[in-house]
Amino acid sequence: MTDINTYEGAPEAEFRDFVALLKPRVMSLVVFTAFVGLWVAPVDVHPFIAFCSVLFIALGGGASGALNMWYDADIDAVMRRTQSRPIPAGRIDGGAALSLGLILAGFAVMMLGLAANWFAAGFLAFTIFFYAVVYTIWLKRWTPQNIVIGGAAGAFPPMIGWACATGGISIESLLMFALVFFWTPPHFWALALFMKSDYHEAKVPMLTVTHGRPATRRHIFAYTLVLAPFAIWLGLTQVGGPVYLAASVVLNALFIHGGWQILRRSEETAVADGYAVEKRVFKLSLYYLFLHFTALLVQNWVGGW
């Protein structure tokens, strides 16, 4: 890891640069899945406690993002899609990002414990550690399974939300975890298929770099097959119902079909049309997760089984 600091003559940091450190796009996913996990739990939670819980989970997610950007500043400076981030662009000092991440992490964990319960707070602390240390510092630069194992960090928020309401873990929260966990590899590998040069130049051992695109295509299709049973199983639990189950069946059929299309394509065909199918499946993967958790909210509103 190379620390990149602000240089003389660089533009001064603005408030939006500090917001960017928190990875707001990633945080939006954290907030939404955590909120759904809390909302569909079979326990009444006071609206103010629910709001505070989601807020502090969001701050914990932002802390993880800041710590990730601090450590990955050297990689971000190489990859085209991340060169404009605050640290490689020289607008924020690496040390400031580290301090912000640590302060936010401590504040979020402490306040979540006070607002909800200490089990959920400990779960949040573990998630921050897992993302910042296990994934960012260890897995990301060491193994092509970085996205597979590291994806657990992004799958914990609905479990934390559930824990805020119930103080524990259940089959429902584990299946919400599995939904995000098994969705993560095909989502990121679809992106990696048309962004391979970035990972290659940054020496990040993404599957496309270490095993090539044909192997990545096989893995994407395999994971869509593994994902579907867990997603549909969630519809058979107490938080599920006919609305969620119908949505899940349709979405998984579309995702598996997309994985099959990716699997059958040759590299020559993909290059010729600018990776049109890969980009379409990547976009579908975004809707896939959002619509699954939205379906859980709708099902909770109309009533389950």
From TrEMBL:
Stated role: Converts heme B (protoheme IX) to heme O by substitution of the vinyl group on carbon 2 of heme B porphyrin ring with a hydroxyethyl farnesyl side group.
Protein name, as recorded: Protoheme IX farnesyltransferase
Enzyme nomenclature, EC number: 2.5.1.141
Superkingdom as given in the UniProt entry: Bacteria
Pfam families reported in the protein's UniProt record: UbiA
Localization: Cell membrane
Membrane topology: Multi-pass membrane protein
Top-level EC class: transferase
Miscellaneous comment text of the record: Carbon 2 of the heme B porphyrin ring is defined according to the Fischer nomenclature.
InterPro entries: Protohaem_IX_farnesylTrfase (IPR006369), UbiA_prenyltransferase (IPR000537), UbiA_prenylTrfase_CS (IPR030470), UbiA_sf (IPR044878)
Catalysed conversion reaction: heme b + (2E,6E)-farnesyl diphosphate + H2O = Fe(II)-heme o + diphosphate
Quaternary context: Interacts with CtaA.
Native organism: Paracoccus acridae
